[in-house]
Amino acid sequence: MISLSLGCQTKGVATNRKNVEIVSESDSLGPALRLLMEDYDVTLSSAPDAASPDVLVWHFGGEVDQRALAEVAHAVPTLVLADEEHLLPAVDAGCRGFLVDSSPLHAITEAVDTIARGGAVVAPDLLGTLLRHVVHRQRREATTFSAIESLTGREKEVFRIAASGASRSRIAELLFISPETVRTHLQRVYSKLGLHSQAELMTFAVRVGEFDPEEWL
Amino acid sequence: MSVHPARKGRLVEDSGTKSWMVYEPESDSLHELNETARAIWELCDGKTDPSEMARAVSEVTGMNLEESQSVVTNTIESLAGRDLVGYED
After folding, report:
1. Whole-model pTM above 0.90?
2. CA-nearest residue of chain A to B62?
3. How far does the CA of residue A180 sit from the closest CA of chain B (Å)?
4. pLDDT for A149-174, tens place per residue?
5. Is residue B63 part of a domain?
Protein backbone atom coordinates (compact mmCIF):
# COMPACT_ATOMS: atom_id res chain seq x y z
CA MET A 1 0.00 0.00 0.00
CA ILE A 2 1.20 3.49 -0.83
CA SER A 3 0.02 6.30 1.39
CA LEU A 4 0.05 9.85 0.15
CA SER A 5 -0.58 12.69 2.52
CA LEU A 6 -1.68 15.93 0.93
CA GLY A 7 -0.01 18.53 3.04
CA CYS A 8 -0.70 22.24 3.17
CA GLN A 9 2.34 23.02 1.03
CA THR A 10 0.47 23.17 -2.21
CA LYS A 11 0.81 25.11 -5.39
CA GLY A 12 -2.81 26.11 -5.83
CA VAL A 13 -6.34 25.30 -4.94
CA ALA A 14 -5.45 22.72 -2.36
CA THR A 15 -4.46 25.30 0.25
CA ASN A 16 -7.90 24.94 1.83
CA ARG A 17 -7.73 21.17 1.75
CA LYS A 18 -4.84 20.41 3.99
CA ASN A 19 -6.62 17.60 5.77
CA VAL A 20 -7.03 15.34 2.79
CA GLU A 21 -5.36 11.98 2.79
CA ILE A 22 -4.99 9.66 -0.16
CA VAL A 23 -4.47 5.96 0.21
CA SER A 24 -3.82 3.95 -2.90
CA GLU A 25 -3.79 0.16 -3.00
CA SER A 26 -2.71 0.17 -6.59
CA ASP A 27 0.88 -0.27 -7.66
CA SER A 28 0.26 2.15 -10.49
CA LEU A 29 -1.55 5.31 -9.54
CA GLY A 30 -4.14 6.62 -11.99
CA PRO A 31 -3.29 9.68 -14.10
CA ALA A 32 -5.35 12.02 -11.93
CA LEU A 33 -3.66 10.87 -8.74
CA ARG A 34 -0.30 11.29 -10.40
CA LEU A 35 -1.33 14.84 -11.29
CA LEU A 36 -2.31 15.44 -7.69
CA MET A 37 1.13 14.34 -6.65
CA GLU A 38 2.83 16.62 -9.15
CA ASP A 39 0.60 19.67 -8.77
CA TYR A 40 0.10 19.53 -5.04
CA ASP A 41 3.58 18.66 -3.91
CA VAL A 42 2.40 15.51 -2.24
CA THR A 43 4.72 13.77 0.15
CA LEU A 44 4.96 10.01 0.02
CA SER A 45 4.89 8.16 3.29
CA SER A 46 4.80 4.53 4.23
CA ALA A 47 1.52 4.60 6.15
CA PRO A 48 -1.58 6.75 6.37
CA ASP A 49 -1.27 9.86 8.49
CA ALA A 50 -2.23 9.08 12.06
CA ALA A 51 -4.22 12.31 12.27
CA SER A 52 -7.79 11.87 11.14
CA PRO A 53 -8.23 13.72 7.84
CA ASP A 54 -11.35 15.66 6.84
CA VAL A 55 -11.68 13.53 3.74
CA LEU A 56 -10.03 10.28 2.81
CA VAL A 57 -9.51 9.44 -0.85
CA TRP A 58 -9.16 5.69 -1.19
CA HIS A 59 -7.97 4.31 -4.50
CA PHE A 60 -8.68 0.60 -4.84
CA GLY A 61 -6.36 -1.49 -6.89
CA GLY A 62 -8.29 -4.75 -6.54
CA GLU A 63 -10.14 -6.69 -3.89
CA VAL A 64 -11.30 -4.63 -0.96
CA ASP A 65 -10.92 -5.34 2.74
CA GLN A 66 -14.59 -4.77 3.51
CA ARG A 67 -14.09 -4.65 7.25
CA ALA A 68 -11.31 -2.08 7.10
CA LEU A 69 -13.26 0.01 4.63
CA ALA A 70 -16.41 0.02 6.79
CA GLU A 71 -14.42 1.02 9.86
CA VAL A 72 -12.67 3.84 8.02
CA ALA A 73 -15.80 5.07 6.24
CA HIS A 74 -17.67 5.34 9.51
CA ALA A 75 -14.85 7.36 11.05
CA VAL A 76 -13.88 9.61 8.11
CA PRO A 77 -15.89 10.78 5.07
CA THR A 78 -14.38 8.66 2.32
CA LEU A 79 -14.19 9.11 -1.43
CA VAL A 80 -13.49 5.91 -3.30
CA LEU A 81 -11.82 5.66 -6.68
CA ALA A 82 -12.18 2.23 -8.24
CA ASP A 83 -13.54 0.36 -11.20
CA GLU A 84 -17.29 -0.20 -11.23
CA GLU A 85 -17.15 -3.68 -9.73
CA HIS A 86 -15.13 -2.59 -6.73
CA LEU A 87 -17.28 0.45 -6.02
CA LEU A 88 -20.20 -1.72 -4.92
CA PRO A 89 -18.58 -2.82 -1.62
CA ALA A 90 -17.78 0.86 -1.01
CA VAL A 91 -21.49 1.71 -1.09
CA ASP A 92 -22.19 -1.03 1.43
CA ALA A 93 -19.40 0.24 3.65
CA GLY A 94 -20.96 3.69 3.91
CA CYS A 95 -18.51 5.68 1.79
CA ARG A 96 -19.62 9.15 0.71
CA GLY A 97 -18.16 9.48 -2.76
CA PHE A 98 -17.89 7.14 -5.74
CA LEU A 99 -15.82 7.86 -8.82
CA VAL A 100 -14.24 5.57 -11.37
CA ASP A 101 -10.49 5.48 -11.07
CA SER A 102 -10.07 7.07 -14.49
CA SER A 103 -11.83 10.25 -13.32
CA PRO A 104 -10.14 13.52 -14.27
CA LEU A 105 -8.36 15.59 -11.69
CA HIS A 106 -11.05 18.28 -11.52
CA ALA A 107 -13.72 15.67 -10.77
CA ILE A 108 -11.67 14.36 -7.87
CA THR A 109 -10.92 17.76 -6.38
CA GLU A 110 -14.57 18.86 -6.74
CA ALA A 111 -15.67 15.64 -5.08
CA VAL A 112 -13.27 16.22 -2.19
CA ASP A 113 -14.69 19.72 -1.72
CA THR A 114 -18.27 18.48 -1.78
CA ILE A 115 -17.59 15.69 0.68
CA ALA A 116 -15.66 18.03 2.98
CA ARG A 117 -18.79 20.20 3.08
CA GLY A 118 -20.88 17.22 4.15
CA GLY A 119 -22.22 16.22 0.74
CA ALA A 120 -21.99 13.05 -1.29
CA VAL A 121 -20.74 12.48 -4.82
CA VAL A 122 -21.67 9.84 -7.36
CA ALA A 123 -20.32 9.79 -10.89
CA PRO A 124 -23.52 10.25 -12.96
CA ASP A 125 -23.04 7.19 -15.12
CA LEU A 126 -22.60 5.02 -12.01
CA LEU A 127 -25.83 6.11 -10.36
CA GLY A 128 -28.06 3.42 -11.92
CA THR A 129 -25.66 0.59 -11.07
CA LEU A 130 -25.24 1.76 -7.48
CA LEU A 131 -28.98 2.25 -6.96
CA ARG A 132 -29.81 -1.24 -8.26
CA HIS A 133 -27.15 -2.72 -6.01
CA VAL A 134 -28.50 -0.89 -2.95
CA VAL A 135 -32.12 -1.84 -3.67
CA HIS A 136 -31.18 -5.51 -3.87
CA ARG A 137 -29.05 -5.30 -0.75
CA GLN A 138 -31.76 -3.49 1.21
CA ARG A 139 -34.21 -6.25 0.28
CA ARG A 140 -31.83 -8.89 1.56
CA GLU A 141 -31.26 -6.89 4.72
CA ALA A 142 -34.98 -6.41 5.36
CA THR A 143 -35.19 -10.16 5.66
CA THR A 144 -32.05 -10.27 7.76
CA PHE A 145 -33.22 -7.57 10.17
CA SER A 146 -36.20 -9.67 11.11
CA ALA A 147 -33.86 -12.64 11.48
CA ILE A 148 -31.93 -10.77 14.21
CA GLU A 149 -35.03 -11.06 16.32
CA SER A 150 -34.86 -14.82 15.91
CA LEU A 151 -31.44 -14.97 17.59
CA THR A 152 -31.43 -16.31 21.10
CA GLY A 153 -30.07 -14.12 23.88
CA ARG A 154 -26.72 -15.93 23.85
CA GLU A 155 -26.50 -15.76 20.06
CA LYS A 156 -27.09 -12.00 20.21
CA GLU A 157 -24.24 -11.68 22.72
CA VAL A 158 -21.93 -13.70 20.48
CA PHE A 159 -23.07 -11.66 17.48
CA ARG A 160 -22.29 -8.32 19.16
CA ILE A 161 -18.89 -9.39 20.45
CA ALA A 162 -17.98 -10.97 17.11
CA ALA A 163 -18.95 -7.66 15.49
CA SER A 164 -16.08 -6.03 17.37
CA GLY A 165 -13.63 -8.33 15.59
CA ALA A 166 -12.94 -10.45 18.66
CA SER A 167 -11.49 -13.90 18.07
CA ARG A 168 -13.39 -17.04 19.03
CA SER A 169 -11.19 -17.54 22.08
CA ARG A 170 -11.73 -13.93 23.18
CA ILE A 171 -15.50 -14.32 22.83
CA ALA A 172 -15.29 -17.51 24.85
CA GLU A 173 -13.30 -15.74 27.54
CA LEU A 174 -15.78 -12.85 27.77
CA LEU A 175 -18.81 -15.14 27.94
CA PHE A 176 -17.23 -17.85 30.11
CA ILE A 177 -17.96 -20.56 27.55
CA SER A 178 -15.72 -22.81 25.47
CA PRO A 179 -14.40 -21.80 22.02
CA GLU A 180 -16.22 -24.80 20.60
CA THR A 181 -19.52 -23.50 21.99
CA VAL A 182 -18.72 -20.10 20.48
CA ARG A 183 -18.17 -21.81 17.13
CA THR A 184 -21.58 -23.46 17.37
CA HIS A 185 -23.26 -20.16 18.26
CA LEU A 186 -21.48 -18.38 15.43
CA GLN A 187 -22.55 -21.01 12.91
CA ARG A 188 -26.17 -20.58 14.02
CA VAL A 189 -25.86 -16.79 13.81
CA TYR A 190 -24.41 -16.99 10.27
CA SER A 191 -27.12 -19.41 9.25
CA LYS A 192 -29.97 -17.30 10.65
CA LEU A 193 -28.62 -14.04 9.21
CA GLY A 194 -27.53 -15.42 5.86
CA LEU A 195 -23.92 -14.45 6.51
CA HIS A 196 -20.81 -16.39 5.62
CA SER A 197 -17.94 -14.95 7.60
CA GLN A 198 -17.02 -12.76 10.54
CA ALA A 199 -15.97 -10.02 8.11
CA GLU A 200 -19.49 -10.02 6.64
CA LEU A 201 -20.96 -10.03 10.13
CA MET A 202 -18.87 -7.00 11.10
CA THR A 203 -19.89 -4.99 8.06
CA PHE A 204 -23.51 -5.94 8.59
CA ALA A 205 -23.40 -5.03 12.29
CA VAL A 206 -21.95 -1.60 11.58
CA ARG A 207 -24.64 -0.92 8.98
CA VAL A 208 -27.56 -1.98 11.14
CA GLY A 209 -26.24 -0.16 14.20
CA GLU A 210 -25.64 -3.32 16.22
CA PHE A 211 -21.97 -2.57 16.77
CA ASP A 212 -20.92 -0.43 19.70
CA PRO A 213 -17.12 -0.35 19.84
CA GLU A 214 -17.16 1.01 23.37
CA GLU A 215 -19.13 -1.95 24.59
CA TRP A 216 -16.62 -4.74 24.18
CA LEU A 217 -13.18 -3.36 23.34
CA MET B 1 -53.15 0.67 -9.77
CA SER B 2 -50.00 -1.18 -8.66
CA VAL B 3 -47.42 0.71 -6.63
CA HIS B 4 -44.72 -0.91 -8.71
CA PRO B 5 -43.96 1.19 -11.77
CA ALA B 6 -42.73 -0.62 -14.87
CA ARG B 7 -40.63 1.04 -17.53
CA LYS B 8 -41.58 1.13 -21.19
CA GLY B 9 -39.35 1.53 -24.20
CA ARG B 10 -35.71 0.71 -24.50
CA LEU B 11 -32.44 2.47 -23.98
CA VAL B 12 -30.60 3.58 -27.10
CA GLU B 13 -27.35 5.46 -27.45
CA ASP B 14 -27.20 8.57 -29.57
CA SER B 15 -24.08 7.81 -31.58
CA GLY B 16 -23.54 11.51 -32.26
CA THR B 17 -23.66 12.89 -28.76
CA LYS B 18 -22.86 9.57 -27.05
CA SER B 19 -25.78 10.27 -24.71
CA TRP B 20 -28.40 7.69 -23.76
CA MET B 21 -32.04 8.08 -24.75
CA VAL B 22 -35.20 6.04 -24.34
CA TYR B 23 -37.03 4.94 -27.46
CA GLU B 24 -40.74 4.32 -26.97
CA PRO B 25 -41.99 2.30 -29.96
CA GLU B 26 -45.74 2.81 -29.51
CA SER B 27 -45.43 6.53 -30.02
CA ASP B 28 -42.25 6.12 -32.07
CA SER B 29 -40.63 8.77 -29.92
CA LEU B 30 -37.19 9.38 -28.44
CA HIS B 31 -36.73 10.87 -24.98
CA GLU B 32 -33.57 12.26 -23.55
CA LEU B 33 -33.26 11.63 -19.83
CA ASN B 34 -30.84 13.10 -17.38
CA GLU B 35 -28.78 10.65 -15.32
CA THR B 36 -31.14 10.68 -12.33
CA ALA B 37 -34.21 10.10 -14.49
CA ARG B 38 -32.45 7.35 -16.38
CA ALA B 39 -31.36 5.64 -13.14
CA ILE B 40 -34.90 5.75 -11.76
CA TRP B 41 -36.37 4.61 -15.11
CA GLU B 42 -34.03 1.61 -14.93
CA LEU B 43 -35.26 0.83 -11.42
CA CYS B 44 -38.85 0.70 -12.70
CA ASP B 45 -38.88 -3.07 -13.18
CA GLY B 46 -42.47 -3.69 -12.06
CA LYS B 47 -41.19 -5.16 -8.77
CA THR B 48 -39.55 -2.24 -6.99
CA ASP B 49 -41.82 0.21 -5.22
CA PRO B 50 -41.02 3.93 -5.03
CA SER B 51 -40.24 3.78 -1.31
CA GLU B 52 -37.48 1.23 -1.97
CA MET B 53 -36.13 3.48 -4.71
CA ALA B 54 -36.21 6.49 -2.39
CA ARG B 55 -34.29 4.67 0.34
CA ALA B 56 -31.63 3.68 -2.18
CA VAL B 57 -31.39 7.21 -3.58
CA SER B 58 -31.05 8.55 -0.05
CA GLU B 59 -28.26 6.11 0.82
CA VAL B 60 -26.25 6.58 -2.35
CA THR B 61 -26.60 10.34 -2.78
CA GLY B 62 -26.75 11.41 0.86
CA MET B 63 -30.10 13.18 0.39
CA ASN B 64 -32.45 13.01 3.34
CA LEU B 65 -35.26 10.52 2.87
CA GLU B 66 -37.98 13.13 2.45
CA GLU B 67 -36.05 14.82 -0.33
CA SER B 68 -35.29 11.55 -2.10
CA GLN B 69 -38.96 10.52 -1.89
CA SER B 70 -39.87 13.78 -3.57
CA VAL B 71 -37.26 13.25 -6.31
CA VAL B 72 -38.43 9.71 -6.98
CA THR B 73 -42.12 10.60 -6.98
CA ASN B 74 -41.67 13.60 -9.28
CA THR B 75 -39.42 11.65 -11.65
CA ILE B 76 -41.83 8.74 -11.94
CA GLU B 77 -44.72 11.12 -12.55
CA SER B 78 -42.69 12.85 -15.23
CA LEU B 79 -41.78 9.51 -16.84
CA ALA B 80 -45.41 8.38 -16.68
CA GLY B 81 -46.43 11.67 -18.30
CA ARG B 82 -44.20 10.80 -21.25
CA ASP B 83 -45.59 7.26 -21.24
CA LEU B 84 -42.17 5.83 -20.37
CA VAL B 85 -43.51 4.19 -17.23
CA GLY B 86 -46.70 2.22 -16.68
CA TYR B 87 -48.18 0.45 -13.72
CA GLU B 88 -48.59 -3.29 -13.77
CA ASP B 89 -51.61 -4.86 -12.06
Report:
1. no
2. A120
3. 39
4. 889 999 999 999 998 889 999 999 99
5. yes
